[in-house]
Specification:
Lipoxygenase-1, 4 helices, 13 strands, single chain, alpha+beta, 226 residues
């Protein structure tokens, strides 16, 4: 008899959920004494079918936020470089130096940039004599100095060929009559003068000019009689 009591005590030590540890609430449901389940991290007992405590969700790695922030910063940096004014390459060849002195060139490519900052070369009206038999020709207009917000407008025989636009290092193309008067009117000076270049397809010549704000440079196109 004594041996049986000892066995029961040993069995009770292995299974802490005894009658004393099980309590009945007012609704008749059985609850487990917290003093018993506190020793089990999960609160799970296979014998009595008590479910485990839900595990806390793992926190997202902090470094992931820093990676996303870094990518955004890099993208914004390169976007800023792509739209930054004055980002073109300045031509420092002897031909470019000659163009600064004479304000004309038949050798420099369309879109040539001569200066880092605006420097007025002086405004002038030009007469272009040519032998082209075509009724129209193309011209390209761009800023040969700093992109600082200069605006111009193209007029053909006194009539606007389009709205005013900001001149940039990237040339803008227009089609104009091969005979008549083309005016490049200065609309707004971004600072340092409205500096621009215009290349005429019919004589393959570029003119570097400065338009007065509110005034215009006239290019008179004349068919040369042979």
């Amino acid at each position: 008899m004594r041996q049986k009591q000892v066995d029961n005590q040993k069995q009770g030590s292995k299974n802490p959920l005894t009658k004393e540890s099980l309590k009945t609430d007012s609704s008749g449901k059985v609850a487990v004494d917290s003093n018993v389940t506190s020793g089990n991290a999960s609160g799970f007992s296979p014998r009595y079918g008590i479910p485990p405590v839900a595990q806390a969700k793992e926190k997202k790695p902090v470094f992931k936020k820093f990676v996303i922030f870094g990518i955004i910063c890099i993208v914004m940096f390169f976007v800023g470089l792509s739209i930054a004014p004055g980002s073109g390459t300045i031509n420092t060849t002897p031909e470019a130096q000659t163009a600064i002195e004479t304000q004309v060139s038949t050798m420099l490519p369309v879109g040539t940039i001569l200066m880092k900052t605006d420097e007025s070369l002086g405004g002038q009206d030009i007469t272009i004599e040519h032998e082209s038999e075509q009724g129209e020709t193309k011209i390209w207009v761009w800023d040969y100095a700093a992109e600082d917000g200069d605006y111009v407008q193209i007029l053909v025989n006194g009539v606007p060929a389009g709205d005013a636009f900001m001149i940039k290092h990237k040339p803008r193309e227009f089609t104009v009559p091969s005979v008549g008067e083309v005016q490049i009117k200065g609309i707004r000076d971004g600072g340092g003068g409205i500096t621009y270049a215009v290349h005429y397809e019919l004589n393959k010549t570029t003119y570097f000019n400065t338009a007065p704000e509110g005034g215009a440079n006239a290019y008179t196109l004349v068919l040369k009689l042979v």
